[in-house]
Amino acid sequence: MSELAAIHGRPIRLAGGRVSTRIQPRPLIACGLLALATLAVAVVGVATGDFPVSPGAVLSALVGQGDPGTTFIVQELRLPRVVCALLCGFALGISGTVFQTLTRNPLGSPDIVGFQQGAVTGALVVITVLESGGTDASLGALVGGMITAAAVYVLALKDRRLSGFRLVLVGIAISALMLSLNDYLLSRARIEDAQEATRWLLGSLNGRTWEDATPLLIGCALLLPASLCVGPALRMLELGDDSAAGLGLRVERARVGLVALAVALVAVTTTAIGPVAFVALTAPQIARRLTRSAQPPVLAAALTGALIVQASDIVAQRLVPSTPLPVGVMTGALGGIYLIWLLGTEWRSGRA
Amino acid sequence: MEIRTRMTRPPLHADGVTLAYDKRVVAEGLDVEIPDRGFTAIVGPNACGKSTLLRALARMLKPREGTVLLDGKVIGELPSKQVARRLGLLSQTSTAPDGITVVDLVARGRHPHQSLLRQWSRDDERAVQAAMAATRVDDLALRPVDELSGGQRQRVWLAMALAQETQLLLLDEPTTFLDIQHQIEVLDMCAELHEQGRTLVAVLHDLNQACRYADHLIALREGSVVARGAPSEVVDADLVEQVFGVRCRVMPDPETGTPMIVPAARKAIAVRV
Predict the structure, then answer these.
(1) Contact across the interface for B117 and A20, Cβ inside 8 Å
(2) d(CA B218, CA B70)
(3) Dihedral sign, Cα of residue A300, residue A306, residue A309, residue A314
(4) B165: left (phi over 0), alpha (psi -120 to 50) or beta
(5) How far is CA B134 from CA B128, B185, B212, in A?
(6) d(CA A152, CA A155)
(7) Rounded distance, CA B200 to CA B219, Å?
(8) Residues near B102 by Cβ (< 8 Å), separated by ≥ 6?
């Protein structure tokens, strides 16, 4: 029975059985450790840099008790950057989990199937064709991401069913199309527009202010509570459409809702920090291996995503002294290595 | 108050349903009644609309015309979870998530009984244990489903449907891809469930098995009902030829006395033609 509890979970019942759940020890421990690690890299992000601040000083600066210089550095320069990194990582981790579960394919993740590239196209159109920028570019990214997602989703439907494999193939094709469109838009851009546009080519946290973080905060405040309740629907959909419907899930409605949520999560991160590659792809896979659970690891993937983005940003800032790199370079490099490993093992096990 | 003389209709029935996928019409104007506490087998040749009819009864396919009624209400208009507490489905197209254990998969059958606050009640635990015991997969509880054999896996899916604790159980070709030993194992389990008072509806390929296990047959051909009733009353050589286009002899099954179909030999056909 204890072995059963370890894998299947320990029941917890309150209020005379009206409230009940079961806790699986391993995922719980994994999430706890991930949360601690994320907190640790967040503290490192706030405390270190050209002007190191002791953890104690960070705390007093956070509550507004420190000296004005430190408070400014912590509250206005470093904190928005760290908050952006954590929220984006969180959102990308959830979005990746939702997509990979829906498509039953580790490659069915928003960064592979072109949503981020579509968002970049949207921003580039605003900058180079409409010759605008700033908030308009963010709006363009939002619209571009949504249109791309809708196109991929519709093209991947077959007999009104979503085929995960088709979604991946269609997505990769659309992604390539968007990439070449992006190159074309850049090549005909004026030099000053091109400069503005480069910020959209790679995800970057450099120079993020509270102004940049605000839309992200609002978006996450709306989306994250909903995201943490997607578990039951995902667990049903994993079993196949018919089984899910047999167990009382309204399949079409649930799936459209989940896709909309996952796309919205990617869209808000892309408008805030650009297309940070490979986080949505890797976070759910790493989380699944850490939790060793067959349940879609929504919370663990969110924490893993936050950890990856924040840790990558620290490395990206420090790797080349005097030239802070965009965080997307680091996540891209990490993700690339992971992808090679994934394809290698999947091929060996004969599934890809 | 209901008028006593009025025929009471079984809880699940379809009235004049036309079933279609996009443009292709599979069946028109079907009337089907599923006897309460019976074991109904839907039989017929490939592509005759067997599975489509089952899908319509399980509210997975909305009829283009007509209605499927459950407990007197249009099934598509009832809350989905409420239907799922009344009617379970063993689908042909289920996929087990990578690495899931037997007990975790069976536990997912409890979804219609759960809510945001009630995620794992004592009833859930008891139902999962009972379902695993009934399908004899309790010894496999902690094994990953992907490591099991086809027969074991089908029993696990059946356990998931049982954990749902529904009075009605719909099974879409529960014996496909199983060898004869495991076919019998699964069908014997179905017979046990039937004896315990459940209403079963199964799409079956093997007519002899259908005659042995079911007490009500619905024979379909090209989307229409050719015959319905107790196997011993409706199955004869003419029906088999009409439904499957196969010449045969029908004799009593030496084990059970139910109709047994013996297809005519090739030479015999040549002699007769």
Answers:
(1) yes
(2) 19
(3) negative
(4) left
(5) 10, 12, 21
(6) 5
(7) 16
(8) B132, B137, B140, B141, B142, B143, B144, B145, B148, B156, B159
Domain that holds residue A167: 25-56+81-349
CB B85 within 8 A of CB B113: yes
Q: Looking at residue B169, what DSSP letter applies?
A: E
Are A236 and B99 a contacting pair at CB < 8 A?
no
Instruction: For residue A272, give the 3-state DSSP assignment.
Output: helix
Q: Flag residues of chain A having pLDDT under 70.
A: 1-3, 5-7, 346-352
Do the Cβ atoms of A245 and B59 come within 8 Å? yes
pLDDT band (50, 70, 90) for residue B179:
very high
- Is A350's Cβ below 8 Å from some Cβ in B? no
Domain assignment present for A285: yes
**Chain B contact for A235, CB < 8 A?**
yes
Q: How many CB atoms lie within 10 A of CB B74?
A: 13
Is A309 among the domain residues?
yes
Q: What is the pLDDT of residue A81?
A: 94
DSSP 8-state code for residue A125 = I
Flag if B84 and A248 touch (Cβ within 8 Å).
yes
Residues of B in contact with A352 (CB under 8 A): none
Q: Could you tell me which residues are beta bridge partners of residue A13?
A: A20
d(CA B153, CA B137): 9
Residues 6+ away with beta carbon under 8 Å from A14: A20
The Cα–Cα gap between A299 and A292 comes to 14
- Please check whether residue A68 lies inside any domain of the structure: no
Indicate the pTM of the whole model: 0.89
Q: Is A3 on the interface with B (CB under 8 A)?
A: yes
pLDDT surpasses 80 at B151: yes
Reported residue count of chain A is 352
Judged by DSSP in three states, B225 sits in strand
CATH number of A43's domain: 1.10.3470.10
- Going by C-alpha positions, the residue among A333, A307, A339, A289 that lies closest to residue A85 is A307
Give dist(CA A44, CA B44) in Å, integer: 69
Q: Is the pLDDT of residue B2 over 50?
A: no
Residue A74 resides in a domain: no
What is the pLDDT averaged over residues B102-127?
93
What pLDDT score does B1 carry?
Answer: 42
> Domains in chain A: how many in total?
1
